[in-house]
């Protein structure tokens, strides 16, 4: 037994060499800055970051600090520098690229920059290593997927979404009205959202195809982990490592393409741009994207396989963000203080009343009446964004730019905004750290207060989930604010309304902490106990 635990001298030498090599690779990666912003304070402050004099492994240690608590670094910099109107720089364990974090006063400047100065695409492609994880998704000359999402006619999708919500939640949470069942919010809600999103993206019957759904779910669950491994790999070795570790992603992409490409071809083959005037409006994102592709003169934009890959990459963007929001919203609604104030019961009453007023049918108008649900979702997103920093861009202007505060940022610098510290700033939100589900409603009890309104701090009124501002950045802000937030709002409100009407959730004794990694929140991953309400309890 002892012999099996001890290493032979040769094995020891090999292990030591491997460890040294790994340490060297790590050191090289962490010190190979692409662009070093100068003339700005760095956080963490207790590590000597200055460029001229560096202790060995200073930057490596800083990266590790980001790994342990990227959100804490964002708070530290926000308090020390941003509140005084100054930008600061933080490391990133995930992308290895330091980021300049701008103060609130410069959010407007950032979101007003044209794409020739700052690029969101460069950030997205880098953060998810899309060139390796979903290369075909980025073979296009125009990012018309954003236009396609903006053109979705949501009113025509309401019934479809409601149908999938009902079928999906029933399947995942069960129909047992006698016993409490323990379920994992993350995995069950992910399954439902994959299904709903598929209905919006590709329509029926493909959204019910088991092979398609499984491949899409696998792709969604694996892409971030693979992106991180690729990002950790030295650039020279990336193509090799990526080829090896992205085999699964490629296979799932091809499986989804097997189903989507014929639909894309069908949509495009029979349609010329001139036909589109006489055709019924497109319903799914696949139809919308295909029609926009017909209008493009570039072959790359019209390639059915890249269109299907783009849909799959968007599927990831749509499902992960929505799942994080929903998970947090449900946990917040049943944790103190909300559980003691019975927020969930109020949301149930609202959903039942709206259903009654609308004769049991969901529509755009009915969804608009879910004001408390809308506010509860927004409040949860305020407190729990999936990243502490956001509105991230890469400077692409040749020769760089000068910030309003006078500092110079070279081309290639990554820049962002301290989203979570802004959302939790007591000078911007009353009682900023506490979850007040109905903070954004028009009702008398919440009228007044700051609630993140910068222009008119004391103006009361319902602020909708989809409204973005310099102080509510969960969906970004400005020209690149999330185009999918309207779809997400419909899906999330219908999900919460259905759950509240048909299920009891056992209140939690305390609000479970969200898992964290760098400045990411990975959700609460929490198990909760649910019970189907009996027909006589549900109106
Ligand atoms: C609660 C759910 C969601 C949240 C919290 C969310 C959040 C965000 C954020 C923070 C950004 C970056 C904005 C910026 O940097 O200014 C973004 C961009 C984007 N989101 Fe969402 N998102 C959600 C749902 C969706 C859905 C359902 C879709 C698709 C239907 C979608 C598609 C996109 C796209 C395509 C972009 C890039 C926009 C561009 O390049 O201009 N998102 N989202």
TrEMBL record:
Keywords recorded for this protein, A-Z: Heme, Iron, Membrane, Metal-binding, Monooxygenase, Oxidoreductase, Transmembrane, Transmembrane helix
Binding site for heme: 482
Names of required cofactors: heme
Ranges annotated as spanning the membrane: 6-27
Keyword Transmembrane helix: yes
PROSITE patterns assigned: CYTOCHROME_P450
One of the record's GO molecular function terms: heme binding
Pfam families: p450 (PF00067)
Coiled coil: none
PANTHER family (UniProt xref): CYTOCHROME P450 (PTHR46206), P450, PUTATIVE (EUROFUNG)-RELATED (PTHR46206:SF1)
Family the entry assigns: Belongs to the cytochrome P450 family.
Protein name according to UniProt: Cytochrome P450
Species for this entry: Saxophila tyrrhenica
């Amino acid at each position: 037994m002892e012999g099996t635990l001890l290493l032979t001298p040769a094995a020891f030498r090999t292990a030591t060499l491997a460890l040294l090599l790994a340490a060297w690779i790590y050191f090289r990666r962490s010190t190979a800055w692409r662009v070093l912003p100068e003339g700005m304070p760095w956080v963490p402050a207790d590590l000597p970051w200055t460029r001229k004099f560096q202790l060995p492994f200073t930057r490596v240690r800083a990266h590790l600090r980001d790994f342990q608590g990227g959100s804490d670094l964002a708070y530290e910099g926000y308090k020390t520098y941003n509140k005084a109107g100054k930008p600061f720089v933080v490391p990133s364990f995930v992308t290895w690229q330091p980021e300049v974090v701008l103060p609130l006063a410069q959010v407007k400047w950032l979101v007003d920059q044209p794409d020739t100065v700052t690029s969101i695409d460069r950030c997205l492609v880098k953060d998810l290593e899309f060139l390796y994880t979903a290369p075909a998704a980025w073979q296009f000359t125009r990012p018309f997927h954003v236009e396609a999402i903006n053109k979705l006619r949501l009113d025509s999708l309401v019934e479809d979404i409601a149908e999938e919500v009902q079928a999906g939640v029933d399947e995942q949470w069960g129909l047992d009205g006698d016993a409490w069942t323990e379920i994992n919010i993350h995995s069950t809600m992910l399954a439902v959202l994959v299904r709903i999103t598929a209905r919006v993206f590709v329509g029926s019957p493909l959204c019910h195809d088991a092979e398609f759904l499984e491949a899409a779910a696998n792709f969604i669950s694996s892409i971030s982990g693979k992106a991180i491994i690729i990002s950790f790999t030295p650039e020279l070795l990336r193509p090799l490592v990526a080829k090896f570790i992205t085999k699964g992603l490629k296979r799932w992409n091809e499986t989804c393409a097997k189903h989507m490409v014929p639909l894309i071809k069908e949509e495009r083959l029979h349609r010329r741009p001139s036909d589109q005037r006489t055709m019924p409006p497109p319903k799914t994102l696949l139809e919308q994207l295909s029609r926009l592709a017909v209008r493009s003169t570039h072959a790359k934009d019209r390639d059915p396989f890249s269109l299907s890959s783009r849909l799959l990459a968007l599927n990831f963007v749509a499902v992960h963000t929505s799942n994080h929001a929903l998970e947090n919203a449900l946990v917040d609604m049943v944790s103190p203080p909300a559980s003691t104030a019975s927020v969930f019961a109020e949301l149930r009453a609202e959903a039942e009343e709206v259903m009654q007023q609308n004769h049991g049918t969901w529509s755009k108008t009915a969804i608009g009446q879910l004001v408390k649900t809308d506010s509860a979702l927004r409040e949860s997103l305020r407190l729990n964004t999936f990243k502490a920093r956001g509105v991230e861009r890469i400077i692409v202007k040749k020769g760089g730019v000068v910030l309003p505060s006078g500092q110079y940022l070279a081309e290639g610098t990554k820049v962002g905004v301290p989203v979570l510290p802004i959302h939790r700033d007591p000078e911007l939100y009353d009682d900023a750290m506490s979850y007040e589900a109905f903070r954004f409603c028009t009702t008398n009890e919440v009228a007044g207060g700051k609630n993140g309104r910068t222009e008119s701090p004391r103006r009361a009124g319902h602020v909708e989930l989809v409204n973005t501002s310099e102080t509510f950045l969960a969906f970004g802000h400005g020209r690149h604010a999330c185009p999918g937030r309207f779809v997400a709002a419909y899906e999330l409100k219908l999900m919460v309304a259905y759950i509240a009407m048909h299920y009891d959730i056992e209140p939690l004794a305390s609000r479970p902490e969200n898992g964290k990694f760098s400045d990411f929140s990975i959700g609460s991953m929490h198990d909760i106990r649910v019970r189907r309400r009996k027909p006589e309890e549900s109106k």
